[in-house]
Amino acid sequence: MQISIRGHHLSITPAIEETVRQKFQDMTKHIDHISSMQIKLSKDHQVDQRSKKGSDNHIAEAIVRLPGVEFFAQASADDMYLSIRKLIDKIKKQLQRYRTMQSHTSMISLN
């Protein structure tokens, strides 16, 4: 499986890269046939005029490709690590639904 990680308005530190790789590999070790993953981490530099600080400005996006299907998710938070955790949760839900649909489809085709 190929994991591509890139930053937009943000440099990818070794700690962030290791966190992303570990979490995605742990999440997908029970799912076969993942072709590739593209992870984009970015920081939006917009500032809230009242509080003078950014809110939910660390954005994590993922595209996970399996043969014939592609999943996309996006999450944002005040902290990059939190946005990565939110992203993992969203992708996990999508992959679990996909696995459930696949198992139901194979059960129907067996009958």
UniProtKB/TrEMBL annotation:
Keyword Transferase: no
Stored InterPro entries: HPF/YfiA_ribosome-assoc, RHF-like, RHF/RaiA
Keywords noted in UniProt: Translation regulation
Lineage: Bacteria, Pseudomonadati, Pseudomonadota, Gammaproteobacteria, Moraxellales
GO molecular function: ribosomal small subunit binding
Residues in the signal sequence: none
Keyword Coiled coil: no
A biological-process GO annotation: negative regulation of translational elongation
Summary of subunit composition and partner proteins: Associates exclusively with 100S ribosomes, which are dimers of 70S ribosomes.
Full protein name: Ribosome hibernation promoting factor
Domain of life: Bacteria
Family recorded in the similarity comment: Belongs to the HPF/YfiA ribosome-associated protein family. Short HPF subfamily.
Cellular component per GO, a single term: cytosolic small ribosomal subunit
Pfam families documented for this protein: Ribosomal_S30AE
